[in-house]
Amino acid sequence: MRTYNEKISIYHGMASTIAANFSNNFFTIFAITMLGATNYQVGLISSLPPLMALIMTIPAAILINRAHTQKKLVAMSVLLARLMFLLIISIIYVPSPTTHAWIFLIVIAIMSLPNTVANIGWQTFISSLVEESNRGAFFSDRNRLLTIVGLISTLVIGIVMKDSSSNVTAYQILFAVAFFFGMLEVFLLLKHEEEPVKTDSLLIKKKMMDWSIFKHQNYVSFLIAALFFNFAWQMAWGIFNIYHVRFVGVTIFWVSMFSVGSMLAQFLSFPLWKKWAEKRSNTLVFVWAAIGMATTPFLTVLSTNVYYIALVQTSSGFFLAGVVLLLFNLLLEQSPAHVRTYCITTYNVLLSIVAFVAPQVGIWLLEQLGVETAMYINSTLRFLSAGLFFIVYIKFTRKRKSSMVT
Questions:
Q1: Beta-sheet strands, E only, within 239-323
Q2: Distant-in-sequence, close-in-space partners of 199: CB < 8 Å, separation ≥ 6
């Protein structure tokens, strides 16, 4: 049986998924086809949010640590972020078309500030509401349900708007729907039941940083491996977007179909990844997921046929399910409970640096070496990241055996 908070969290996740699917999936094609964005500006769509997150992470952690109740802070942050959709809808009415892409990027950057507070706050908030013993099962089931919702909503978008890729009104409708579900997100966040943090606990939490987290070797090992993996993973995001829109010539329909295929594979494979992780360990199974993710860039550039690309995106969804489920579980697993907020905050700060740099490196490689070579390099780096996680797994295993002997 699910607890009340677990049920509300699932409903909130559904609203959040729909809001994201009606907006984030179409930012790139909107920027290129409607706003005339350049390759450099497309790269900034991926890079600016983590840069803003980097700026905002420490203030966000301070706000979260000092808050008596985290849900109100998270809810208000989501509200501010979702209000930005109204500005995106209005960009097309600005008199100077040459500034539209830059205005869009500025709005994306501003949106990322409250999003950072919301993301870090939610990670800390949900970790305190879900029992550790039930965490793996809960997130597996939650991710499956959210994937169904995402799949259905994205399929509807693709079918209803399949002939509207060059119609600005279609994008405005998408962002308006995203805004509506964003408001539903806020309502559902406030429905959670949360115990106010006691005054003495707040006094303990007021330290800006606890450097003792770096004494925990398991956390440090995970941190290094996870950052390298994220660099390799996110480096290709801008390249994929440009390849799909400029080389393959995808429409709203095909953007939706790519997402539907990926989400369908995720839905079907979440139970498998959960089962394998329980049997083998989160770290070892993550190695398998990372190896699978490494094949996607290489396979993508073998053809510009949209049906083939859809097949590749579907297969990548299988491995993405493992990454989504296991990476967050590993973060919580390797973060000691008494300093978990500091561990999560540090991870997010460093991840923001990586997420800002990685897409820019990807775009630079694309411009200098061409799309195919850039993708091949990315596949190589992803394979190396899998190898690094395997080394971490061996280290964890030896340490565990050593502690058992002593």
A1: none
A2: none
Structure tokens at 269: 């494979």
Tokens standing for residue 313 = 């995106």
pTM for this model (two decimals)? 0.73
Domains of the chain as residue ranges with CATH? 4-193+213-405 (1.20.1250.20)
57-116 confidence digits (pLDDT tens): 778 877 877 766 778 888 899 999 999 999 999 999 998 888 999 999 999 999 999 998
Answer yes or no: are the C-beta atoms of 174 and 26 closer than 8 Å: yes
Report d(CA 211, CA 197) in Å as an integer: 23
Token reading at 201: 């606990």
Give CA–CA dist 164/177, Å, rounded. 16
In the structure encoding, which two tokens stand for residue 203, read together?
Answer: 């006094």
3-state SS of 111-168 is HHHHHHHHHHHHHHHHHHHCCHHHHHHHHHHHHHHHHHHHHHHHHHHHHHCCCCCCCH
Phi/psi for 236 (5° steps) reads: -90, -5
Say which residue the tokens 């083998």 belong to: 280
Per-residue pLDDT reduced to its tens digit, 357-400: 999 999 999 999 999 999 999 999 999 999 999 998 888 776 66
